[in-house]
Amino acid sequence: MSTVNIKIDGREVAVKEGEYILNAARANDIFIPAICYLTRCSPTLACRLCLVEADGKQVYACNAKVKEGMEITVDTPNILEERRAIMEVYDVNHPLQCGVCDKSGECELQNYTLELGVDSQSYMIPDTKREVKNWSSVLHYDAGLCIVCERCTTVCKDMIGDAALTTVKRGGEALDKGFKETMPKDAYAMWNKLQKSVIAPSNGTEYTNCSDCGECAAVCPVGALVSRDFQYKSNAWDLKRIPAVSAHSSDGFQIYYEVKPASIENRNEKIFRVTNEWNYVSLDGAARFAYDFENTDVTKDEAAFAKALEAFKNAQTVRFNSVITNEEALMLQTLKEKRGLKLYNPEVRAFQKFLGYYQKASGNRFWTTDNDAIMKKSDFVIALGSALRNDAPGMKYAFNNVQKLNKGAGLYFHPIADTLIPSFGKNVECFTHKPGLEEAALYLVLDLFADKEKLPEEVKEYLASFKTTETKTIKEKVMKDVTETVVDEETGESKEVTKKVPEMVDKEITVEKNGLVDLLGGNSSTFTDTFEKMMKKKESFSMMIGEDFYYHDKAENLAKLIALIEETSEIDVVMAPPKANALGVALICDLDDEAEGYTIGYNEIGDFRLSALGDGDLDMPAMNQQEGTFTNISKRVVPTNAAVEYGGYELNDLVSELIEEGESLTVDWTVRLPASKGFRAIEFDALPNGYSNDGTENRGYLLKTSNRKAKTPSVEKFDEHAALEGEIVYRCNPARQFSDFSDKAHEIFEPFGLYASAEKAEALGEKVEVVFGNGSIVVDVIADEKMTGDITKLSDFKSAQNVYELFGPARYQTVTMRKV
Amino acid sequence: MGLEQFKNRNVGTQNYKMLDLGQSPETGMGKFKQVLDRTFKGELLVGLWVTMREMINALFKGQMHTVKYPFEKLPISPRYRAIHDMLRLLESGHYRCIGCGLCEKICISNCITMDTRYDENQRKEVSEYTINFGRCIFCGYCAEVCPELAIVHGPRYETASEQRASFSLFEDMLTPIDKLNLQQEYDGFGAVSPNADENIKKTPLAY
Amino acid sequence: METTLVQNLPEVTAAGVIIKAILILAVIAAIAGFGTFIERKVLAFMQRRLGPMHVGPYGLLQLVADGIKLFTKEDIVPQNANSLIFKIAPSITAATAFIALAAVPVFPDFTIPEWVPLLGGVFVPSIAADLNIGILFVLGMMAAGLYGPLLAGMAQANKWGIIGAARTAIQFLSYEVVTGLSILAPIMLVGSLSFVDFNNAQAGGISHWLIWQQPVAFVLFLIAGFAETNRTPFDLLEHEAEVVSGYATEYSGMRWGMFFIGEYANMITISIIAAVVFLGGYSEVGIGWLTIILKVGFFFFLMLWVRAAWPHVRPDQLMWLCWKVLMPIAVINIVITGIVMMV
Question: Does B52 touch chain C (CB under 8 A)?
Answer without folding.
Answer: yes
